[in-house]
Task: inverse folding
């Protein structure tokens, strides 16, 4: 593989994962918790970034060294475990994708005034078109990169417009007034939970980036992916903090739109439309691609016609939104549930790292294993506490 094409592929995988994470739920969760926790939300972001890096480093590395997708690895750890993991991933991916389609509809509604349902249908057509062109993989990579750059650039503009108290944010990131488990679980779930952390790993595998000789590239790509998503999260947090610090109450039906409109007026509102649409459609693409990648190896028919299964996944998501819809509280809930999938998925991958029939003579770094185990324990504990105490508050 040529160095330039290799770099483009690795960047494409990083952006696919990052833009899969940056969806309507990402925008909603970030602004929702910024309004609740103010500057202390910086601490939540810091902890989530550390957890995200640890989880992604382990998972992408083990996929590359085993040269198999996660569901096959899981089945090799324990027969049937791969089917269970795939069920969790696909179900979570479908639920998230309904929210993604809803977000795309909302974005087009802001930009052009068309109904969210019509906007969702048109956006679904765009997402389907990405997979119907001849070199779908390259188009998907480029689409994710361009959309990612646009989202980050526009969010930076709005952040400066809102004039956030950066000094306070820095202090509270290290010494927060409060620590919110629900916020941490939701943010981690929305960044590397469910299907998201596997998006780039499976993309690299699909493109032939695997084996020991590729581990350096895989590590760079996995950390870059978290970096891209985290940059967007930080800028969005600061933009929202600037608005909240002025005493402005956000619209509970659409918190991120409130931030952009309060910070930059009607221009800000239109910028929100662009960001929401780009975030939503790239997430639709990432969710559909990754969810289907979890069932491709189970059937020769699915493997042969996987593009059409991806198209079907998008069509179903669109049809469900048009008939049902997706409120803000459910987007936050699905993020937290995806956070619960993470300790299961990461735990399975860590077990696989020590089975020679899966990884051969490869020796997984001890510090990565310790890092990974701590994340499994911490996310499992916080996830259970969240389910018992935190989630009901969303609907009270």
Result:
């Amino acid at each position: 593989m040529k160095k330039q094409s290799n770099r483009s592929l690795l960047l494409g995988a990083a952006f696919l994962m990052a833009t899969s994470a940056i969806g309507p739920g990402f925008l909603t969760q970030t602004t929702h918790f910024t309004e609740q926790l103010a500057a202390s939300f910086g601490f939540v972001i810091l902890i989530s970034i550390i957890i995200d890096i640890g989880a992604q480093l382990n998972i992408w590395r083990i996929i590359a060294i085993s040269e198999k997708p996660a569901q096959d690895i899981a089945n090799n750890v324990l027969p049937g475990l791969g089917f269970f993991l795939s069920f969790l991933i696909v179900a979570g991916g479908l639920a998230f994708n309904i929210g993604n389609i809803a977000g795309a509809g909302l974005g087009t509604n802001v930009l052009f005034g068309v109904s969210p349902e019509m906007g969702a249908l048109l956006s679904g057509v765009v997402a389907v078109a990405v997979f119907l062109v001849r070199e779908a993989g390259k188009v998907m990579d480029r689409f994710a990169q361009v959309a990612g750059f646009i989202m980050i650039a526009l969010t930076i503009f709005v952040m400066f417009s809102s004039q956030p108290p950066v000094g306070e944010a820095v202090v509270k990131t290290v010494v927060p007034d409060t620590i919110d488990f629900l916020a941490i679980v939701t943010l981690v779930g929305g960044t590397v939970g469910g299907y998201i952390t596997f998006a780039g790993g499976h993309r690299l595998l699909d493109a032939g980036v695997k084996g020991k000789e590729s581990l350096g590239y895989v590590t760079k790509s996995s950390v870059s992916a978290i970096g891209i998503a985290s940059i967007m999260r930080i800028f969005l947090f600061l933009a929202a903090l600037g608005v909240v610090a002025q005493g402005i109450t956000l619209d509970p039906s659409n918190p991120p739109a409130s931030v952009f409109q309060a910070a930059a007026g009607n221009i800000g509102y239109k910028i929100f439309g662009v960001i929401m649409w780009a975030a939503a459609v790239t997430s639709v693409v990432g969710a559909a691609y990754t969810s289907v990648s979890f069932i491709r190896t189970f059937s020769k028919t699915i493997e042969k016609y996987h593009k059409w299964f991806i198209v079907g996944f998008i069509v179903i998501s669109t049809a469900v939104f048009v008939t049902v819809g997706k409120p803000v509280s459910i987007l936050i809930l699905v993020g937290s549930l995806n956070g619960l999938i993470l300790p299961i998925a990461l735990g399975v991958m860590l077990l696989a790292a020590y089975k020679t029939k899966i990884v051969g003579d490869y020796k997984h770094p001890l510090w990565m294993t310790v890092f990974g185990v701590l994340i499994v324990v911490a996310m499992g504990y916080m996830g259970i506490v969240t389910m018992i105490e935190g989630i009901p508050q969303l609907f009270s």
Q: What stands out?
A: The two ends are 55 Å apart (CA to CA). Residues 255-293 form the longest helix (39 residues). The CA atoms of residues 344 and 376 lie 7 Å apart. The mean pLDDT is 86.
